[in-house]
Amino acid sequence: MAKQKKQPQGSIALNKKALHDYFIEQKFEAGLALAGWEVKSLRAGKAQLVDSYVLLKDGEAWLMGSHITPLTTASTHVIADPTRTRKLLLHKRELDRLIGAVQQKGYTCVALSLYWKKHLIKCEIALAKGKKEFDKRHTEKERDSDREIQRAMRTKGKGE
């Protein structure tokens, strides 16, 4: 009998810029239609989601702007396009909810992360609303004050 391989766990790529630029309203888990060389590159952790977004067109969802760097050893016989458009696999009711919300004013759909779920690669996408500049400053102030409180709590416990 064949020996079972250990499946990789955890996150492949995060889009921290999306958390900074948007208020996250609702999250969805989507599958990805990938080529073989892309899966090998993702196993090696060669992915970026910095400027990626989700395009909703003709009742389908497409991941645009994500970058998966091809491995030189894996894609010798295929002409690899690192920024190609990849199809997101969602249920019909999830697609309908996303399309309905994006047609409202101010909503957009962004990719938050790529991660492993057992042997499958999933993309976490979110329905988001854009932040204004003062919202971003307010978020940074909250984060700084939380950090100061945590630091004070840590030093208070050690001083006694």
Automatic annotation (TrEMBL):
InterPro entries documented for this protein: SmpB, SsrA-bd_prot, SsrA-bd_prot_CS
Origin superkingdom: Bacteria
Membrane-spanning ranges: none
Keyword annotations of the record: Cytoplasm, RNA-binding
Region entry Disordered, spans: 131-160
Location, primary (coarse class): cytoplasm
Cell location: Cytoplasm
UniProt record similarity statement: Belongs to the SmpB family.
Function: Required for rescue of stalled ribosomes mediated by trans-translation. Binds to transfer-messenger RNA (tmRNA), required for stable association of tmRNA with ribosomes. tmRNA and SmpB together mimic tRNA shape, replacing the anticodon stem-loop with SmpB. tmRNA is encoded by the ssrA gene; the 2 termini fold to resemble tRNA(Ala) and it encodes a 'tag peptide', a short internal open reading frame. During trans-translation Ala-aminoacylated tmRNA acts like a tRNA, entering the A-site of stalled ribosomes, displacing the stalled mRNA.
Record protein name field: SsrA-binding protein
Organism: Azotobacter bryophylli
Gene designation: smpB
